[in-house]
């Protein structure tokens, strides 16, 4: 199978989704309703080809050459410059201004074709942009004749080995592609531009509907028109082989760095999720400050408060940022997303990446963007943003506000896919204080602690510490120091139905040197006992089905060694009656959550010594 | 440079593609429409789009055959093979050209 040779268009994003641009010597059709940016896209392609040394002919039908040149020059596309250099030629095929045009009987396209032939011969044109087919065939001839006439033009272009781009009006955003209804059958590539109302906002998109002989990205891609022309946001990133390296950098919180094996991975996207007041903005500020203090360039985009207030708030907790801004390491931009379209915001971010060239980017918060757009618009924004960040190989921290009861559940699939790491901030309101936690929900390519660490707001920002206690409500515990292994070689059967607690206690005991077999229920634990008696049993009381008391009675009813294994109840049930019931069932010790990991290890060690 | 058309004389330019049958047909139909007209009241120029490129460019020629009728007061463009004699004569009469049609 032959490979389709292509010309890059230079239109940001287009060459990626088209796998290289438009096909050489073939025809590409750009369709869209009025105001979708067809002419701009055509001009961008024409001027880019011209700048690349491909002599290009622009056929002006819908507007006069002067108007087209003016449009292109105003966008900074350098149309006049390309014309002056001789690489771009414009010919006027607009309707004669002398009186009405009456069409009667048969006719052909020889006039235009001969004109183009003459220009190609004289100018050496290798590409042509026709703006537009719709205007060219106005008034509209009968359908059969129209089909024939359009085919004459396209075939003539092909005979002349011209790479052609034809613009055409669409009657509707979704449905028949063009008002004339014939162009897409003849052209090799069909590109659809849309500018539709989505909620209260307009949303632009570009879709490659057809590309003969070549693969291309499918579906609609967000795009926008800026002072630089059309920009498309591919929902995928260019592959960057240089990313296949592991480099870590500090998150700005030493405690968090210890949770994630030394720091965040370079070129990764981190989402920090949590309810209002959980410390997300502060974490974003610490991340930004740490990067700037290392001498990196950091771009901070705040969407929730004016810059003056953000700066003041950071300063008030010992995180001043103005000095870092003055030094040029930190660029803080605060704006309300409602004031911008999402595509414009993406353009602003792209320009920021290209001009300021930050290595770290903070967006606080993406929820503000989410609330100012439709679900589809936000999804496209996020995917476009991720693509942008990956294309430029930038590390980013994005904050997301979620309700307190949704911190672990409210993750749209596309957000999970985008994020290389997800950190969850949460808090519970106690009788006298607020208990804050930080958990690493996910971190691609890195080991990390899965249980929550304690988070405290202090002067200088946030502090992250391993939890000192195993809590009854959230069942948290920190690992014992690896150097202390008082349970070395002990075989412990752990019975705990709550997965988090099971994992945490298992880690604590393993770090203390024990070999742990973990079960989630009484029957499972009893089945494990069949395979041999452990040195110690640690069991929760509040198990589903058979509780920890019934479990222990069955253990004690067993003959031989199995029935005599020392056992510890580890439970949130701490009343004297609970303690008595545990002892009555056969437990030697009754430990109440929360408990210090070191206490747990010490008690277990002492029990084994006593038993032996 | 061609001579300027004298005042009061209708100027007509017919662009044709000699290689195409419909251009020849348009030429015949126009001759038929002009039959009986006083030759001094009009001036017809037939241009070959494959050769008279500068003129075709200046007149924005896209389709052939194409007849441009110029009169100080009335101008129009007729695209097609000019088979509709009634239409042709009507348009020419707008330019004050008396035809036999």
How would you portray this structure in words?
The complex is a heterodimer of chains A (612) and B (101). Chain A is of the alpha/beta class. Chain A folds into 3 domains: 6-232, Rossmann fold (3-Layer(aba) Sandwich); 243-465, Rossmann fold (3-Layer(aba) Sandwich), CATH 3.40.50.300; 491-611, Response regulator (Rossmann fold, 3-Layer(aba) Sandwich). Chain A is 34% helix and 25% strand. In chain A, the strands form 5 sheets. Chain A has a 9-stranded mixed sheet with strand order 5-4-7-8-3-9-10-11-12, sandwiched between helices. A 9-stranded mixed sheet of chain A has the order 17-16-18-19-15-20-21-22-23. The N and C termini of chain A lie far apart (77 Å). Chain B is an alpha+beta fold and 101 residues long. Chain B contains 3 helices and 4 strands, in the order βαβαββα. Chain B has helices at 21-34, 53-58, 85-94, and strands at 10-16, 42-48, 66-70, 75-79. Chain B has a 4-stranded mixed sheet. In chain B, helix 1 links the parallel strand 1 (10-16) and strand 2. Chain B starts with 9 loop residues before the first strand and ends in a 7-residue tail after the last helix. Classes of the chains: A alpha/beta (612), B alpha+beta (101). Chain A binds chain B through residues 61, 91-96, 98-112, 114-115, 117-118, 136, and chain B through 15, 17, 19-20, 22-23, 25-26, 49-50, 53, 56-57, 59-66, 68-70, 74-84, 87, 91.
């Amino acid at each position: 199978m032959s490979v389709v040779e292509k010309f890059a268009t230079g239109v940001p994003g287009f060459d990626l989704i088209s796998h290289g641009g438009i096909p050489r010597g073939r025809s590409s059709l750009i369709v869209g309703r009025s105001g979708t940016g067809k002419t701009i896209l055509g001009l961008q392609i024409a001027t880019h080809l011209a700048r690349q040394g491909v002599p290009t002919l622009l056929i002006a039908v819908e507007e006069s050459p002067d108007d087209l040149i003016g449009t292109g020059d105003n966008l900074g596309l350098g149309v006049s410059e390309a014309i002056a250099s001789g690489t771009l030629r414009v010919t006027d095929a607009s309707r004669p201004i002398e009186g009405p045009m009456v069409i009667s009987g048969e006719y052909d396209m020889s006039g235009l074709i001969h004109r183009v032939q003459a220009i190609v011969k004289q100018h050496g044109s290798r590409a042509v942009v026709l703006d537009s087919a719709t205007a060219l065939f106005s008034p509209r001839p009968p359908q059969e004749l129209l089909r024939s006439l359009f085919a004459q033009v396209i075939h003539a272009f092909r005979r002349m080995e011209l790479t052609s781009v034809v613009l055409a009006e669409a009657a509707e955003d979704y449905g028949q592609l063009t008002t004339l209804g014939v162009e897409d059958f003849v052209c090799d590539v069909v590109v659809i531009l849309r500018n539709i109302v989505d909620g209260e906002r307009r949303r632009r998109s570009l879709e490659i509907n057809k590309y003969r002989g070549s693969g291309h990205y499918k579906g609609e891609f967000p795009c926008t028109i800026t002072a630089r022309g059309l920009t498309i946001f591919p929902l995928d990133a260019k592959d960057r082989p240089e990313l296949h390296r592991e480099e870590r950098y500090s998150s700005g919180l030493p405690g968090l760095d210890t949770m994630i094996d030394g720091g965040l991975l370079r070129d990764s996207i981190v989402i920090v999720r949590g309810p209002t007041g959980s410390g997300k903005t502060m974490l974003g500020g610490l991340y930004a400050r740490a990067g700037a203090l290392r001498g990196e360039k950091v771009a901070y985009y705040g969407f929730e408060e004016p810059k003056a207030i953000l700066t003041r708030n950071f300063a008030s907790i010992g995180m001043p940022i103005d000095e870092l801004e003055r030094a040029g390491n930190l660029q803080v931009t605060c704006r309300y997303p409602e004031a911008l379209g999402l595509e414009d915001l993406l353009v602003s971010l792209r320009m920021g990446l290209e001009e300021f060239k930050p290595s770290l980017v903070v967006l606080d918060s993406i929820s503000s963007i989410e609330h100012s757009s439709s679900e589809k618009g936000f999804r496209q924004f996020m995917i476009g943003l991720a693509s942008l960040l990956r294309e430029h190989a930038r590390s980013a921290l994005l904050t997301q506000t979620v309700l307190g009861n949704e911190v672990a559940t409210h993750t749209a699939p596309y957000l999970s896919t985008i994020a290389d790491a997800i950190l969850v901030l949460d808090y519970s309101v106690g009788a006298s204080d607020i208990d804050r936690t930080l958990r690493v929900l996910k971190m691609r390519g890195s080991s990390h602690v899965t249980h929550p660490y304690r988070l405290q707001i202090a002067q200088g920002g946030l502090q992250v510490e391993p939890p000192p206690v195993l809590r009854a409500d959230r069942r948290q515990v920190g690992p014992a120091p690896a150097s202390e292994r008082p349970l070395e070689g002990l075989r412990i059967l752990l019975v705990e139905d709550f997965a988090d607690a099971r994992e945490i206690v298992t880690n604590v005991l393993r770090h203390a040197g024990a070999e742990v077999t973990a079960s989630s229920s009484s029957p499972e634990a009893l089945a494990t006992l069949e395979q041999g008696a452990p040195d110690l049993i640690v069991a929760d009381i509040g198990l589903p089905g058979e509780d920890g008391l019934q479990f222990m009675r069955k253990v004690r009813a067993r003959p031989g060694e199995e029935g005599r294994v020392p056992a510890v109840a580890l439970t949130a049930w701490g009343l004297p009656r609970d303690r008595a019931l545990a002892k009555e069932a056969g437990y030697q010790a009754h430990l109440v959550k929360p408990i210090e990991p070191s206490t747990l290890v010490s008690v277990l060690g002492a029990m084994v010594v006593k038993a032996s | 440079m061609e001579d300027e058309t004298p005042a009061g004389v209708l100027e007509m330019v017919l662009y044709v593609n000699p290689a195409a049958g419909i251009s020849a047909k348009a030429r015949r139909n126009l001759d038929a429409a002009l039959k009986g007209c006083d030759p001094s009241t009009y001036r017809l120029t037939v241009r070959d789009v494959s050769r008279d490129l500068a003129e075709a460019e200046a007149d924005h020629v896209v389709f052939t055959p194409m007849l441009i009728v110029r009169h100080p007061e009335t101008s129009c463009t007729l695209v097609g093979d000019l088979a509709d004699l009634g239409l042709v004569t009507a348009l020419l009469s707008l330019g004050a050209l008396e035809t036999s049609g």
